[in-house]
Amino acid sequence: MSPVIDCTSEDACSAAVAQAADVLRDGHLVVLPTDTVYGVGADAFDPAAVAALLAAKGRGREMPPPVLVPDLRTVDGLATEVPDYARRLMAAYWPGPLTLILRSQASLLWDLGETNGTVGLRMPADPVALALLRQTGPLAVTSANTTGSPAATTVLEAAAMLGPSVAVYLDAGPSRGGLSSTIVDCTGSEPVVLRHGGVSEDDVRRVAAAAPDPAEPTAHPATPPAGSDDGSGHYDI
What we know:
Strands 1, 2, 3, 4, 5, 6, 7, 8, 9, 10 and 11 form an eleven-stranded mixed beta sheet that branches. Residues 214-234 have low confidence and may be disordered. The protein has seven helices and eleven strands. 50% of the residues are buried. It is α/β, with parallel strands linked by helices. It is globular, with a radius of gyration of 17 Å.
């Protein structure tokens, strides 16, 4: 059994996060808490680690994981042609349960799967996750369960499904949220909600429409992002 490390106290958490960061840098998988459900993460820029993440889930390359980021400044290094309405959504709901699908920077040396040139980005409102992300940078993170099983809301549920495929489990107690993030396609001129979750569609549309910039160019028609066909949560945490 892979080690389960307590993160319920500040002192324990600091050491646990440092250990988990080393594990991720070595190309292994880590289960971590988020503000929605438990996630399983890999270095987003390590193709072999991302492939191991998909294998642990029993998931194919057609269902790429989202990428969690530590702050808003990271977005422009990962995405391009970010519309103003997407930035308004980030300002209003990050950190929080909102995943934005954006056009990926073509120059990035990563392989998340068949993304059709897009990337799903989110900043989680969880202190353990953010502490880890500040040490590692962007992580490919998907819900810590096997495909077709319920999302894990405790670290033991995650361990029962993922077992030794994960090197370290960070235990911060039961998930506070339970709902997965709302997924919004931001690759076109207007936001398109692909999956309902922690942020309502009404709130997405209200914030996105606020104070529109008349100088904002109309976005080019987008190639549908991976996972957009049915909104079933290919970007699922």
